[in-house]
Every structure is written in structure tokens, then in C-alpha cells.
Prior knowledge:
203 residues; mainly beta; Pnp Oxidase, Chain A; Rubrerythrin, domain 2; three-stranded antiparallel sheet; binds flavin mononucleotide
Amino acid sequence: MDTNAFRYCTYGLVILGASQDGKINGMVNNTFIQVTNTPSRVTVALTKSGLTHDMILDMGHFAASILTDAAPFSVFQHFGFQSGRDSRKFENIPHALDAQGMPYLVENVCARFSCAVERSIDLGTHTLFVARVADAAVLSASSAPMSYAVYQTQVKPQSKPQSKGFSCDLCGYVLHADSVPADFVCPICGHDASHFVPLGAGK
Ligand SMILES: Cc1cc2nc3c(=O)[nH]c(=O)nc-3n(C[C@H](O)[C@H](O)[C@H](O)COP(=O)(O)O)c2cc1C
């Protein structure tokens, strides 16, 4: 299988926000899509290792903030390269809470959705959530959404070709090593060794 083919899929980038026991948290995700319209339903896949995953599984609600193409790399670093298990990600980040208390961003966001989980499907490393959209709002009608391709080519700092190692073609995590062990799993996004490309070779 040529995993380069996945680079031609069109994905958008969102911040998923969740809340449990008085703590709010969020993470970067590129799997948020509408799958039905009567009623409106979305699906989203999250790696089981994340805190947002556990919160959504337990509480059954999440908010999705659709990032604009002006969102800086710092947003991706902040919400995508660290876990809420070790940090309070929404501290000092402008945000609001929806009717269920789920946090969404109010800057660099085109639109927001409030979602209620109807079904969760165990996919091994990830859980696929099927959720009904309870509410939605446009926050910036004139902004274009951030695509995964724009993130990869224009937002994420490009790896230097002379550096030794491999990077995850999904999230950009860098493994400094001569080779990628066959059973290696990305500690950031949970994808397997087939997603690792030599530094400088990825998008
Ligand atoms: C560009 C980008 C896309 C990502 N897409 C996903 C995704 O679709 N699913 C997922 O589980 N993690 C994805 N991640 C990784 C999570 O955002 C990351 O594991 C995060 O630290 C989890 O935080 P949490 O433990 O606070 O929930 C992505 C990260 C980046 C930078």
C-alpha cells in the first residue's frame, strides 16, 4: 500500500473541546465530517490515549471549532502536541462554553458545533464517535477553513532535509532514530510506523 495516497484526501482541522468534573480540555483533530443531514450527524475519530477521548467517551458531549486558514502554528502546538493530562490548555486562550458546558475557541474559528454522542465504535487504537449536532453557529463568515494540506505545506515548519530521523505524516511528530521500529506508534496521534517518512521527504 502506498500511504502517500492519504495525502490527497481532503481533511479540515478542528479543535474538539470537552469537559468533565469541572475541567475543560481540547485537542486538534482532522476527522470531523458531516455524515447525515436529517438529523444532522457528524463522525470524529480520536486516539484512545488522549484525555479529550476519555472525556467524550464518559460525558457524551463535545464542541467542534472549525479553524480558519489564518490559525497560527502555535494553536496546533498548544492543542495538538501536548495532552491536557499535563496542562490546562484553555487557560489564557479566549474561549466560550456551549449550552452543555463544552469549550470552543472564539478566535481563528469559522464556525462551531455542539455535538451529542449517539454511538461510539471501538476501532482498536481509536474510537469513532457518531454524534448528533445539537447546535451550530457561524463565527466568521468571511474566513476560509484550514485544510490539512494548507497546515502541512504552509503552517507546519518544514523539516530540514539534512536532519536524521522520521516524522509522522499525520501530525508532524519527529522520531530521531536511524529506523522506525515496526511496532512503533506515534505518541501524539496514535498512528503506526507506516505513517513515518524520512525527515525532509514528507509534506
Ligand atoms: C494536525 C494535527 C492533526 C491531528 N489529528 C488527530 C486526529 O484526527 N485524531 C486524533 O486522535 N489525534 C489527532 N491529533 C493529535 C491530538 O491533537 C493530540 O494527541 C493531543 O495532544 C491530544 O490531547 P489530549 O490528550 O489533551 O486530548 C492531531 C494533531 C495534529 C497536530
